[in-house]
Amino acid sequence: MPATVVGDAGYLAGVLDIARTRQGAALLAAVGPAPDGLTPCEGLPEVTPIPMSALARPGTDPATVEAAFAAVRKLLV
Predict the structure, then answer these.
(1) Is 67:48 a contact under the CB 8 Å cutoff?
(2) Distance between CA 21 and CA 15 in Å, rounded?
(3) What's the pLDDT band for 30 if we cut at 50, 70, 90?
(4) HSE-CB of 14 using CA atoms within 13 angstroms
(5) Confidence category of residue 2, pLDDT binned at 50, 70, 90
């Protein structure tokens, strides 16, 4: 499906603002309900899942890292 970049944002808030003002569409992870002011687009092609990875800052408490990673894993299952 042809696409054109209509905006660029360094943070999720900017991506959501572009989509909310109907200047474009945003491809977002399907975790929980859609963000306020957005609704899913029907009729678009399926997106192939991609691997996700996470890294912790060196020196971070290992228990904190594992708790954070476990919470993210639980959200994505």
Answers:
(1) no
(2) 10
(3) confident
(4) 6
(5) confident
Residue indicated by tokens 């929980």: 32
Please give the full DSSP string across the chain, using - where no structure is assigned: ---------SSHHHHHHHHHTTS--------SSPPTT--PPSSPPP-----------TT--HHHHHHHHHHHHHHH-
Q: How far apart are CA 56 and CA 46, in angstroms?
A: 31
- CB of 1 closer than 8 Å to CB of 44: yes
CB 46 within 8 A of CB 30: no
- Sign, Cα dihedral of 47, 7, 76, 35: negative
AA identity, residue 59:
G
